[in-house]
Specification:
With 554 residues, this protein is α/β, with parallel strands linked by helices. The protein is 30% helix and 23% strand. The chain is built from 16 helices and 26 strands. The strands form 7 sheets. A 7-stranded mixed sheet has the order 2-1-11-10-12-13-14, sandwiched between helices. Strands 4-3-5-6-7 form a 5-stranded parallel sheet, sandwiched between helices. Strands 18-19-20-21 form a 4-stranded antiparallel sheet. Helix 2 packs across helix 3. The termini are far apart. The relative contact order is 0.10.
Length: 554
């Protein structure tokens, strides 16, 4: 590394003194919560519609969950799967599992039975926490073929009384037979088991990747990985004390887990939860709770900006807004700022580096590469080294494209029980991301696209992101996704799927012409299909894989 051009870390010159300050956490979020409960016991920790839980209450309620799990036979190192939306129940289950010495397996609530079954079996999950409705609908049968032996069910209508029909609409039902009610367990007043506090090197999460490139693998995020990035958020965001965070990203996703929940806990702040994303509910929560920070995918900001009731006042309390989990088109950033005020700060990370490894700090704006029109995703942190390498693993000069590789305290040790995949993705502990990008001489990182999504049209490389960014400059376009489709003459050709902004009108021919005027002849889409909405993961990432399947099926 001493001879590396990237070892000089040119991005350090652009960071503030506080952002450059060393961070070396050596405990866990359990300890952070206990400190907050001791120092600010009556400060609101979780706000959920009209419900409020203080730091002391969250500490006590999660103690009781831990005590119950231990009494039911959960051992240190066992796995606890949590399949819940953004509610206090998720947080209590997470902290309770950690206090019991367990590893948490966050599960996407949008997963179908087969996907959940894979996670339960691959993770050898001993305990499952889910909604009573999901248990009755399909999880009872799914869990029957897995190692699960302890089940806690939650009614997300608990811990609040507003019952907003736009998102909850839940009946308060007793816990299904064979399960224990999470709220009742939390209120039982049980002590946490002694001697089970997590060590920094313990696996905190087995975070299954979204599966956009195949069967999901379990990334082993340690407590130290999580706390490092949480502390980086705390020291780098320059938020008021105490800060108010809004959970726009789902907590089961690494971005929501680290940049919202973990950062809030280490800051002793308040986390506002709203069950799941519904644009009107989110805007009402902004007006009620006046948050200082949130992070979410660009698709969520598109939906908020398109809501008929949105005003600049909804965003007036924010000190910073970040985007992560999905590409951020430069046109959206400027359109959002012109209409609503805030500048959306880009960020970049993966589950394998415990959310961010580069972001746009306060006081700076991400440059746009003049040649490609790509918006920079940010600057790495002071203990993080990001390099760009070619197919042989050799570094390329600043400005040239290659694969992004990352080394730093947030990079995980590997995949759960997948030594071959670990050796391939983490040679010598360095993360090979599979993303193509470049870095300029000042240290700004640019992500071009996923390596596997490159389109080969008549021998020319076409990166979908570049075409999508051009589509986003059309005033009618709300969402855009570009894929390669088979073509008898060109081998592959470019196809675009788009959804329209409310009240907008256009046609495929106009969109093709829009791109043809702005892109090289081999890049512009030959086919455009307009859909009501584009398929997305629960974290808001557009699923190009499903769009490719749609083309092949059609």
């Amino acid at each position: 590394m001493t001879s590396s051009r990237y070892a000089a870390m040119p991005w350090l010159a652009l960071l503030s003194e506080a952002q450059r300050a060393p961070v070396a956490p050596d405990d866990s979020l359990v300890h952070a919560l206990r400190r907050a409960a001791a120092e600010t016991p009556d400060r609101v920790c979780l706000a959920y519609f009209d419900g409020r839980l203080t730091h002391r209450e969250v500490d006590e309620l999660s103690d009781s969950v831990a005590g119950h799990l231990a009494a039911r036979g959960l051992e240190r190192g066992d796995r606890v799967a949590i399949l819940l939306q953004n509610s206090p129940h998720f947080v209590l289950a997470l902290l309770g599992a950690w206090k019991a010495g367990a590893t948490v397996v966050p599960v996407n609530p949008m997963y179908k039975s087969g996907e959940v079954g894979h996670v339960l079996r691959d993770g050898e999950v001993a305990a499952l926490v889910c909604s009573g409705r999901a248990w009755e609908a399909y999880l009872r049968d799914t869990a029957a073929g897995s190692p699960v032996r302890i089940v806690l069910t939650a009614c997300e209508a608990d811990l609040q009384t507003r019952d907003d029909p736009r998102v909850t609409g839940l009946d308060r039902l007793p816990a299904p037979d064979g399960t224990d009610d999470l709220t009742a367990v939390a209120r039982a007043g049980l002590p946490a088991p002694e001697g089970r506090d997590p060590d920094p090197s313990d696996i905190a999460l087995i975070s299954y990747t979204s599966g956009t490139s195949g069967t999901p693998k379990g990334a082993t995020n340690t407590h130290r990985n999580i706390l490092y990035n949480a502390e980086r958020q705390r020291t780098g965001l320059e938020l008021p004390d105490p800060p108010v965070y809004f959970a726009l990203a789902p907590l089961f996703h690494i971005t929501g887990m680290v940049c919202q929940l973990a950062a809030c806990l280490v800051s002793g702040g308040t986390l506002v939860l709203a069950y799941r994303f519904e644009a009107g509910v989110v805007l009402d929560a902004f007006a009620e709770h006046r948050p200082h920070y949130t992070v979410g995918p660009s698709t969520a900001f598109m939906a908020l900006a398109a809501h008929p009731d949105v005003t600049r006042d909804h965003f007036s309390s924010f000190r910073m807004i970040s985007s992560g989990g999905a590409p951020l088109p430069p046109a959206l950033v400027e359109r959002f700022r012109a209409a609503l005020g805030p500048y959306i700060r880009n960020g970049y990370g993966l589950t394998e580096c415990t959310a961010p490894c580069a972001s746009v700090p306060p006081g700076l704006e991400a440059p746009v590469d003049p040649a490609s029109g790509t918006l920079a995703v940010g600057l790495p942190g002071p203990e993080t080294v990001v390099r760009i390498v070619d197919d042989r693993g050799e570094e390329v000069p600043f400005g040239e494209q290659g694969e992004i590789v990352v080394r730093g305290p947030q990079v995980i040790p590997g995949y759960w029980r997948r030594p071959d995949a670990t050796a391939e993705t983490f040679p010598d502990g360095e993360l090979r991301t599979g993303d193509i990008g470049f870095m300029d001489a000042d240290g700004w990182l640019y992500v071009v696209d996923r390596k596997k999504d490159m389109i080969n049209a008549s021998g020319f490389k076409v990166w979908p992101r570049e075409v999508e960014d051009v589509l986003h400059t059309h005033p009618a376009v709300r969402e855009a996704a570009v894929v390669g489709v088979p073509d008898g003459y060109r081998g592959e050709t470019v196809k675009a799927y788009i959804s329209l902004r409310p009240g907008a009108d256009t046609d495929p021919g106009e969109l093709v012409s829009h791109c043809r005027e702005r892109l090289a002849a081999y890049k512009y889409p030959r086919q455009v299909e307009i859909l009501p909405d584009l398929p997305k993961t629960a974290s808001g990432k557009i699923l190009r894989r499903e769009l490719r399947s749609r083309t092949s099926d059609g």
